[in-house]
Design goal:
Oligomer: single chain
Largest sheet: 4 strands, antiparallel
Radius of gyration: 20 Å
Structural class: mainly beta
Number of strands: 28
Strand order of the largest sheet: 3-2-1-28
Distance between the termini: 37 Å
Number of helices: 1
Order of helices and strands: HEEEEEEEEEEEEEEEEEEEEEEEEEEEE
Helix content: under 10%
Strand content: over 45%
Length: about 325
C-alpha cells in the first residue's frame, strides 16, 4: 500500500464512522436538521437535513430509525422524515398529502403515530407499506402532542385551541377506538403519563397551571398553580418521583415532587427552554434551550447544569438511542 493511499484512507475514516452508542438526537428546527450527538463528550457525530421546521422526533424500537415530524414554518409542513441513524442519512421524505402541520410523534410497535394539527386528527404511518394507514379525527382545535401507553390500548393528545385532552381507548369492532374529551386548563401542550399509568399530567401553557387527570375516571383530580408564563413541555423522571416543566417564555424549568405536588426547584438553564428529555437511567436530564442554540445537561441529584452542548440553531425535540 502506497503512503498516498494510506493517507487517503485515514482522511476518510471520520466520514465512515457511524453514530455513537448511546446517542442523543436533537432537532434543530431553525436549521431544518437532526443532530446526532455523543452524550459522553457532547460532540456532534453528524447532521441530517430534514423538512422545514422539524419539532418532534421518535425512534424505532430497534434503534435503527428516527422519525421526524416536519411541522413547517410560515408554510404548513406536510411531511415526515425517516432517518437511518447508523448511516446518518434521510431514507425517505414521506408526503402526507392533505395532512398539515404534523407535530407530536410516537412509535408504538412497528407503527408511527403523529398529529396533524391543522386537520384536527391523529394519524398512523406504516413504514413497511410506506403509507398512512389510519386516521382519527379528534374534533378539537390544535391537536398537538400524542402519546401511546405500553400495551398500545390507549392514546392521549393535548388540544391547545380547545383547552382539552383527548383520551382514546381501543375497543373491538370497526370503530377501533372510543374518544373521551377531558376539559383542562388554558392552552394545554406538554403532557406525560406517570410511569404507573395512573395519572396524566398536563402543562397548561396559557394558564400557568398543571392539570392532573386520573386515567381511570378520566377526570381532572387536581390543578396545580405553577405560575409559568408559557409551559410547553412536561416530563416525569423515569422513577416517577419528580416532574420537570419547561417555561419557554419565563426562561425557567420548574421541578415538582410528584407525590406531594410541591415545588422542589425553579431555575433558569438558559434562554427559551423547550424540549425535555430524560436519560433512561435517570442520571441526567437534557433541556433544549432554543435561545442559546444549545442543550443543557442537568444532574438529576443536584439539579444543577453540568454541561452545555452546542447543537445548532433552535434545538427543540429530542430522543435517546441505546
Amino acid at each position: 500500500m502506497t503512503s498516498r493511499l494510506l493517507t487517503l484512507l485515514v482522511m476518510t475514516l471520520p466520514a465512515l464512522s457511524q453514530r455513537p452508542s448511546p446517542a442523543l438526537l436533537v432537532l434543530n428546527k431553525s436549521a431544518n436538521e437532526l443532530a446526532i450527538i455523543d452524550p459522553a463528550n457532547g460532540r456532534v457525530a453528524g447532521r441530517v437535513p430534514v423538512g422545514e421546521g422539524p419539532h418532534e422526533v421518535a425512534v424505532s424500537a430497534d434503534g435503527r430509525y428516527a422519525f421526524v415530524a416536519n411541522y413547517g414554518a410560515q408554510t404548513p409542513g406536510q411531511t415526515l422524515s425517516m432517518i437511518d441513524i447508523g448511516a446518518l442519512k434521510e431514507l425517505r421524505r414521506i408526503d402526507l398529502g392533505p395532512l398539515r402541520r404534523p407535530h407530536g410523534i410516537w412509535v408504538a410497535g412497528d407503527k408511527v403515530y403523529f398529529t396533524a394539527e391543522t386537520n384536527r386528527l391523529i394519524a398512523r404511518y406504516d413504514p413497511a407499506s410506506n403509507k398512512v394507514d389510519w386516521v382519527f379525527g379528534t374534533g378539537q382545535v390544535g391537536t398537538h402532542m400524542v402519546s401511546v401507553n405500553r400495551d398500545q390500548t390507549r392514546m392521549f393528545t393535548a388540544n391547545i385551541g380547545s383547552d382539552s385532552v383527548t383520551i382514546l381507548d381501543k375497543v373491538p369492532g370497526p370503530a377501533g377506538w372510543n374518544a373521551t374529551v377531558v376539559p383542562v386548563g388554558k392552552a394545554p401542550e406538554g403532557n406525560d403519563l406517570s410511569p404507573d399509568g395512573k395519572q396524566l399530567w398536563v402543562a397548561n401553557g396559557g394558564g400557568g397551571t398543571v392539570s392532573i387527570i386520573d386515567t381511570v375516571s378520566k377526570k381532572v383530580v387536581e390543578t396545580i398553580d405553577v405560575q409559568t408564563k408559557r409551559s410547553n413541555r412536561l416530563q416525569f423522571t423515569p422513577d416517577g418521583k419528580r416532574v420537570f416543566i419547561s417555561d419557554l417564555s419565563g426562561n425557567e424549568v420548574i421541578v415538582l415532587d410528584a407525590a406531594t405536588h410541591k415545588q422542589v426547584r425553579r431555575f433558569s438553564p438558559g434562554k427559551v427552554p423547550e424540549g425535555i428529555l430524560m436519560q433512561p437511567d435517570g442520571k441526567r436530564i437534557y433541556i433544549a434551550c432554543a435561545g442559546d442554540n444549545a442543550v443543557m445537561v442537568v444532574d438529576a441529584n443536584t439539579l444543577e447544569v453540568v454541561r452545555r452542548i452546542e447543537t445548532g440553531e433552535g434545538p427543540d425535540g429530542m430522543a435517546w438511542v441505546n
